[in-house]
Write a structure and sequence with these properties.
By secondary structure, this protein is an alpha/beta fold. 30% of the residues lie in helices and 24% in strands. The protein contains 15 helices and 23 strands. The longest helix has 19 residues, at 3-21.
Length: 628
């Protein structure tokens, strides 16, 4: 999942990159890095991902503009923009797309050809950088709204018709392209499961590379707890992944200063970091351990000044989520970035640089050095959680979403503390439950803390309502809200969860081991596109010569491979060299001297191939970034 795993395909795709930048069809792009991989391996190769947010997902734009891409204030997406994202450490991008406003006939649901072509163009930008790319169906649905996906089961014909057109349009693209069914829909489980099954069926029936393309299935509102539920059914297919979004805790990630449900400016206590480990382990246990990878399609934190989030804590949160995903096989996480027009702003698309360079450094470091952590797992029937860090104005709100992944049942909750007066203190322990088949219902059990300093609530599956009486429920692992409801007062130290069988507890330990880069395969005949210029005799000779010279000391003031002359060498230099080779770009005299690895006086394919080999060699020696 780290940089070394991605470099494998770079050499074999260098010639293909040159052809695409000259105008060749990216649909023919084939890289050995994705071919014949299973779903877990592909998600591992996706590594760290980035969202092209507030761009093609814009909606409610017809009537005052016809340019969906820039309607919410972002600039037109360019090749240079995606190349800069790649250079920052990302190996995948997600392109959220709103399709419904770009159909030519509401009766036939036919998508505008020009809009499809523009989406294809941006997909090709990612392919030119040997990146994975997710295309989804994003804001064709809105909370409480009337868009076509809000029609529920009645929207299935339109859903299938539009996805069939998209599938046929991209059917020749290789496995670097991933389709995502929907985004954050709140369908009931039966409808959601039906849509996801129909999505898989129509993709497989469309043929071409869709027959075994990785498909990303919408979770239940893409919520951790609701998706990690027995009611959520994954279609029986070997090449599917599950989508979950991670904005937890919401009071830090998405609550602005005026949020009535709570707002926190800081994050990063030991307990809060442990919550990330537990929650990602729940994704692992629920899906990955069954061979189904998870793609965290969105995570992030509000960044605008009015939201008053601590800048260092934003950086810590992003690093924790990204490194946790990197450390777990079968998990990949995508940063949500609204660009220049939104409330989560990370990469300045106008200036092609990060608003905060220290955040870019987080991702570059993870790309170079890996997650830096690994996880150890133990099983226990009792989990004790300190309460000091969970205190709020109402009592305590404890995150427990990371438990219950393997059908464990919560049998009892024990409060641990001491009375501050003579009278016993009564507590209500509120929680999310499934009642009459409906998730996210509210229920509560009670406990009385007496002079012994403990109080026990029995979770027997019956919630007693004062007006209705006994109500059966299924506990859903999300949170516990512990409040002093009656009687005396007490100081609580911790809460102990008692399960019917062992649950997994997670411990993060330091991992100093860098991944070993796999062997670089030689390009094969099948890797060559029809438009790729055939190597000439002089190219072949220079390639041979440069292989012998590529590790020699460069001439004075020359930094081999630094085609853009920015003081370091990375994959963006290789892309630029290929663009110069095919005549679609120019570079400075210094850039030419740096890029002319074989010192032949011009840039050839052999030069870019040798820079890629040099990158692999220097990465093995931990000398990245390259210096003079």
């Amino acid at each position: 999942m780290q940089f070394f795993q991605k470099v494998t395909s770079a050499v074999t795709s260098a010639v293909l990159t040159a052809s695409m930048l000259a105008g060749g069809s990216a649909a023919l792009f084939t890289s050995t890095s994705a071919a014949d991989k299973d779903a877990i391996q592909i998600v591992n190769e996706m590594g760290m991902g980035w969202n092209l947010g507030n761009t093609f997902d814009c909606w409610n734009t017809r009537g005052w503009t016809t340019d969906t891409e820039t309607a919410w204030g972002n600039v037109t997406t360019t090749q240079d923009m995606i190349t800069a994202i790649k250079a920052s450490g990302f190996d995948s991008i997600r392109i959220p797309v709103t399709w419904y406003e770009n159909i030519t006939d509401p009766a036939t649901y036919d998508i505008d050809d020009a809009y499809l072509a523009r989406i294809k163009e941006v997909v090709d930008y990612a392919y030119a950088n040997d990146m994975y790319v997710i295309v989804n169906m994003h804001w064709d649905w809105e909370s409480g709204g009337s868009l076509w996906l809000n029609k529920g089961a009645d929207a299935l014909p339109q859903f299938k018709t539009m996805w069939t057109e998209i599938a046929n349009y991209f059917k020749d693209y290789d496995q670097h392209l991933v389709f995502e069914s929907m985004n954050e829909v709140t369908f009931d489980y039966d409808v959601l499961n039906s849509f996801n099954q129909s999505f898989v069926d129509l993709m497989r029936e469309s043929g071409g590379n869709n027959a075994d393309r990785l498909l990303l299935l919408a979770g239940k509102n893409d919520d951790l707890t609701q998706t990690c539920s027995d009611s959520y059914v994954v279609p029986d297919d070997d090449m599917v992944a599950v989508s979950i979004h991670y904005y937890t805790p919401s009071t830090f990630c998405v609550a602005d200063i005026n949020a009535s449900w709570g707002h926190t400016e800081t994050w990063g206590t030991e307990t809060e970091i442990q919550d990330v480990y537990n929650n990602f382990n729940k994704m692992k246990e629920t899906f990955v351990d069954r061979g189904i990878p998870v793609i965290v399609g969105e995570y992030g934190v509000l960044t605008t000044e009015k939201d008053q989030k601590d800048r260092d804590d934003i950086k810590l949160y992003l690093n924790t989520v990204a490194s946790t995903a990197l450390a777990i096989d079968g998990l990949s996480a995508f940063l949500w970035d609204a660009g220049n027009a939104g409330d989560m702003q990370f990469f300045d698309r106008k200036e092609l640089k990060w608003f905060d360079p220290t955040i870019e450094a987080v991702y570059k470091n993870l790309k170079q050095n890996g997650a830096g952590i690994k996880f150890e797992y133990t099983s226990t029937k009792e989990v004790t959680i300190p309460l000091a860090e969970y205190k709020d104005e109402y009592g305590y709100t404890v995150t427990v979403a990371g438990y219950g992944a393997n059908g464990e049942k919560l049998e009892k909750v024990i409060l641990n503390g001491k009375l501050t007066g003579d009278e016993a203190a009564g507590y209500g322990i509120g929680f999310c439950a499934k009642i009459d088949g409906q998730s996210n219902s509210w229920a509560a059990e009670t406990a009385t803390l007496d002079s012994s300093g403990t109080g026990t609530a029995i979770f027997d599956g019956i919630f007693e309502d004062d007006k209705i009486g006994d109500i059966p429920y299924e506990f859903e692992f999300s949170y516990l809200s512990i409040q002093n409801w009656w009687g005396g007062t007490a100081d609580l130290d911790s809460v102990t969860l008692v399960f019917d069988k062992g649950v997994t507890t997670v411990t993060a330990v330091k991992d100093d081991t860098k991944p070993t880069p796999p062997e670089t395969p030689a390009p094969t005949e099948s890797d060559t596109q029809p438009d790729t210029p055939a190597p000439t005799e002089s190219n072949t000779e220079s390639s041979s010569d440069s292989e012998e010279d590529s590790t020699q000391t460069p001439p004075e003031n020359v930094l081999w491979g630094d085609a853009n002359d920015n003081g370091e060498v990375d994959i963006s230099d290789v892309v630029l060299m290929n663009r110069v080779y095919v005549g679609v770009d120019e570079i400075s005299e210094k850039g030419l001297a740096n890029a002319d690895v074989d010192q032949s006086g011009k840039i050839e394919l052999a030069d870019s191939m040798n820079v890629l080999k040099l990158l692999v060699h220097l990465l093995e020696q931990s000398d990245f970034p390259i210096s003079q």
